[in-house]
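Q: Protein A?
A:
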Amino acid sequence: MESNKDVALTAAAQRVTEKESALYAALQLEQAPAYAMPDGPLPMSHFSDDTFELFVGDVLSEVKGSPDWDWYDTVHRFSGGADGGRDVMLHAAGHCTGTVQCKKYISHVDLTMVLVEITKYFLHATFDASLISAGVPHFRWYLAASEGTTGPATIFLSGAGVEHITLYRDQIADAAVKARDKNAYLRNRPELTSLDGSGLCDLIWDRLCTSYFGFLRRAELSRLVQMLPGVKSRYYRLQPIVTGDMSAVMERLNHIAGLLHREPNDETNARGIVTSYFPHTLLSGDALNIALLPACGQDSLTVLGHLLREKCEDACGSEPVIIVTSANAFTPDQFGDIQELMASTTHPAILVAGCGKVNGRILNEWKEDSTLLFPDEDWKAAGMKQYQAGWCWVRLSDERAWCHVLIENVPADPSCGQGAQHLCLIFRDAHFWPVLGQDYFCGWAPTRGLLRRLFVTVEEEGEKRRHIIALCASDGARPAEVRSAVSNAHNLSARARICLLMCHSGSANYGPDMRSMCGVFPATDSSCEMLATRTFIPDGAVLRSSTTLLALMTLRWMDESSEIGAVNLFCLKDHRLEDDFPALMTELLNTVNRFSLMMPPGVIARANRELSQQYATDKGMSARLFIHHCLRQLARYSVANPNDIPLHELCIGKLAELNSYLRQHHNVHWQTENQLSGTLKWQAPNSAAMHIIALEDPRKASRQFQAQIADWISEPGEHPCLHVLASGWGSIEEGLVDPAVIPRSNLTVVAPPPNPQGRDAAECNASRKASLSALSALDDLFLTNAGINEIDGLLLRMRNMTQ
């Protein structure tokens, strides 16, 4: 006959408590997506502690009576609180035959925690006989973990019996002391207060040696749930395809990818996606905050520290930011430093970071670290191989940062080992795919490539959702592979909104049209701070300079367009982040550097150093004036478009070197007043200033330069004397330009003064004077590296022409 206690337990198990009803109601509002991946682990990290206990209880209720689960007939759940180490109790014919301790953790459960929980339960059972019913030959203690267990914990829970338990005697004794001291009930039991670890161990030893242990990690729970459609539909939002029949999807994949053959494990590999669900949003409305970090080595750690401590909040306020580095930005031994930075930051952030090649033995050691999550708990690295690896940290709340380990599945180096799974972090408003370079650059053909798995996910959703690909790129990718990767993402845009965030190291060089290929696709940047990749489909925007070690930006990600808003670029100087050169200055220095490679042997290149030093003095005003005159010659000043500079790079590069050479003279300085003309200003002692400008245009003859100067003279307003050094079609007629005898290219009518005294209405304003000479004279001095005396002679000759 059942006792009153057994009847009460049975009644409690048959009804849904108010708390459970509230939990079930909340589940309907926040369900994680479940895809058609029968063997794939389901997300559980988003569950609350109570929901995870409810979930485990429902799973065990549904599987009772099936093979391996036929040793109990009733499931009881304890609704939170001080439960003495039991969250779910399992009974058979009214007798307690087992218990399940649930741990909803963002990391793996280690052996110490397992032993503390076991000893706590068994010490409680010493004083409460209902926890382990008499006559049960083998009591079962299970751990349910929302993620996984470390290797030592898994090994312990996989064994049983005197011989196995004896191996852990000392550790069990230590754990028993911790369990007693941390639990108020046990701490206050007079029978336990005077016992040391060995004595506590003796109290529970016989029961430990006759008990069975086991685990229900995320992987085991997922396999059970895949067989339980009722539980699956209660806790997860089912996608259109949930049967596991992927044949139709695979046929469409083969069609779009143009594949002519099917691999034996094609469908299995295509399902190799591990998901984690986060009840957070990545976007603020349609705005996505992005940080690209192309720094490498020790610089990358310094830049990351400044970013997390200062720049994130300055640029993004309280909104989350996605940080992407290159595949080799960090080294494996920097993990602890990065972990400390992510743990201490108060800003919501996702960091996708490459750490280069990692030895398989180190990866296996990482698997024993409870703070690191691997996509596949059963995967083990080959100790003799190297693996391209990385990390993905998630810190979006006050909880400690999650860290997922990334392993390249399709290595470019055939001697490297390979992983098997891709991680997909699912947020309320976007799917997030952290990926290492070759997994994306490999294209459609490899069965473990990201494109195939992305296609399967997009096909299964049946709606146009946002997908963000955070690509840690390696510098070994060929330009054709990079172009193809961008186009492949675009091929899926009909079914999904895809944003590709690509980060190479700053030292990567894919040519003047692609630079280091750190950027966003698709995207446009109306500010022109980033370079438009006009030769790509779709268009993107990439960083212009190799000196940029951090780029912070906001992407307005609309249905039909993606436009970059505010862009902040930083370089590193003396271990501090400083504003990098703006786009116009960057393009000028890039042009100067490329031109220096074409200069004759023995000729000294000065422009890069000269322009960089001058930028620190005038914040680029002289450089802006110089570029304006190179592109628009004597027209009134207007800010140039940096994208126009590469179209005239030979001219600009040459004139930059000539101006920098002439600037060596102690009385010659850069001109910084944008209402005046000229790139340089020469002012000898006791003499009026003279402005100097060098023009080069092979389409213009001497007469056309003179006409242009005459137009300038005719403009109103006083101006210092101007001397023009010109190079064009044919020889240059040198001397003072007289507008009265030069047919101006654009006749300007000057209004007559109040008392004209017979002046012609077409007469030029006589408040300006300008002269013209051949640029070749300066060319000759530059090419022979002539000294100050020769420069002084040239300057005096120019002045004499304006007298």
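Q: Protein B?
A:
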Amino acid sequence: MKKNRFLLKITLANLKKNKVHTIFTVISTVLCIILIFALSHYFYTSIYNDYNFAVSSNGSWLYQYTDMSDALETKLSKIVTVKQTTVEGLYGSYQLNDEYMIELLNYSDFELCPQYIYQGRHPQNDQEALVSRQFIEETGHQIGDMLSLTYQDADTQETKNCELEIVGIMQFRGTRTDTGLTIDKIIRLSQEPTSMYTVYVATEQMDEATMNRVEGCLYGDTTGASLNNYVVARQYLGEPVYNIDAFDMTILIVIAFLFFVMFITIYNQFLVTLKHRKHYYGLLLSMGANHKHLKIVTVLESFFYALIGIFIGLIVGYYATKMLYDITTDIYLKTSFNSFPAPFITSPEICIIISLMIIVIMNISTLSALKKIYRENIVDLIKENVQHKKRHSKTQTILLKSKKTWLSLGLRYPRLEKGKYLSVIITMILSISFFNIASYYFNVQDQYKDQKNDSDNIKVILKHYDPNNPDYDYQKVIEKLNQYNPDNRNLVQIDGIDLGELRNFDNDVFTEEYKEAFGVPERENISLSFTGVDETLFKDVTGQDQPIFLNRKIKNNGIRNEEDIPIFKEGVIPIEMINSYIVEDEFFYERQTLNIYAKGMYTFEDFEIRDMNEDYLSDDNHLSIEVLAPYDVLIQYNQQYQHLENNLMNIEYKMYTNQHEELIEMIESDKELSDYILAIDNPLEESSKTFLQYFVEILTIFIFLVCLANLGIVISSNIVERSQDYAVLKSLGIKYQDMKKMIYTENILLSVIALCLSMPIVFGIEGWMFYFKFTDLHRFIPSYQVFLSMTLALIIMSILISEIILRTINKDSVISSVDKSMY
């Protein structure tokens, strides 16, 4: 017992003696453990996210039925026991303006359809309301405001009035229809019955056979019944609802790296410390201690770091991660109205497992360091340098005439102390690689956007062209838009036109290359769509003013190995279209023939259409035929077949200009255009960061702090260990500038090694992602700007560290340094 107390006192004395070293070790260990706990909390939250998203966006119900679902409720009650229901009833509609309508809904409770609350709370009676974030944005209302609504009753169609207090704001954006109308909702708590309703149903857990019977019953009903999201449905079968995706696997890899970094950090710290204690350990052995007692001392010291690290890491890791998670979620939600981040959750079991792993790893690292406590001294360095520079040693001192001594020493020190620098280099590589690869991953969406969109045009999206509306003169609208940008290029593009159903082609119109590669397509596997482009541009590209086929099928010959194959033989290809429609209760059936030219192969980019995704052109089992024509030709077709129900054309007007903001402001304030413009897209708007980007940036900063803490351990140990070395160098006549160069060389070399090792990792992984994952990207644009920025940051950090060391060693004289190291 006395021995154990004595050993404990020795441990505490050792910790107090090297306070700076102990502080840096505690900081580095705590940061590692904080990151490990933080990532484990985030990992647990992340794998929960799939289920949470399904519940937040839809609810936790299994199936639903409506007022139109006949006797479905009775049928289902015979199959499975109902656990809970929530009734959603439509009691009225409120027209905010011509483009914004609001459905007024009653909810019997919020158990199965809770809605994701952005601010406030759920309503508790029929005088309180839950509104969407888009409604708040449109009207400027806030929580606590009273709404005075004049609405149309859904049952009686009468006009009624009501007053509701806003008590909550839900994460929701209204649904936009094809006609440009936005449909939003306002919800209150009420069990008042309505004739139009939806019942959401939750059941007890069931086996797969029962689930199949429920599905069969629901799928046989075509009047509104459906199962909820498959992730939610799995809980009714008692299956796990969590999935581990690629990002979750990345987190596990980072956690493994952090455990390794912690092992190296503790190992290096004890390796340096134990070298200084060889003399004291010799005294202990001479006093009767054995190697077992030395192990106890080192293990007790590692327990000290482990207990402090686990205590601080667990508390700070939880609350700091929760705070950062809440902050980044709040930042993300400010610009995103339709996202549902998972609530922050944790697992006591995971915390216990990680704590035990930390204790085991720290004990292993300290015992490993105990086995290796040897260090080469400066005399050996000088001897080796003397032999290497023997031909230059002609004068009184070794170092005064050896011009490259500073370089030799600056390069040799890191080689002698590889283990000490290993943890620093690893954390540097980890932070550089992690941040660069994450930056590339998140930048891919911007690359897609740049690839598909012109960077110098404004897109004015007009309302659907309706030939039955004589007031909608699209030519006047386009002429008016042209007036705002007369000196630059303006283009028009339309799509969405429907000219009927396509009949079978004659097999002779297909090229031999196409038939050899894909065979003759079946009618049910052929689709036809029309796109109108600017008349002048169309003629410049094709040399004609009549519709043409894109005439291009993409054949995949492996990853990033595609071949364009012509679909039709060159010439005029007749297309027979068929239509059936009803006018005044009378059924009509008609046929029409369109003559389309097949001439060469074109891409969408030839017509300056860069926002089309061409994946469907490479579908081996489906033939997608694209017809391009001057937009006025398609409008003539549209007017000719205006009796077809689906003939609503989307018109997009592109203005090439550098004066984006000025033009947008003028167009938006033009009252003559306000009735025809659906939206204005400014491609120069800054893209908002995602929640994941914020989290990764914060994570990288923490990893970099671990790197700085490890660097602090190395610096503090170097200053202590090399005080005699630096004093000897001064006594041998080394100049201050050479001393400075030596220290600069050593520290800059550390950054250079980390950068050189990181470069192939970063660009190799990014290249793999480009080649195999993001196959739609045309060019490989690595994160070289981020890499250069981190290179500059590391060089600056190395210079600052070198200055700290120089100032520290210059405080003491040569004699005092030698004296300090001897006693």
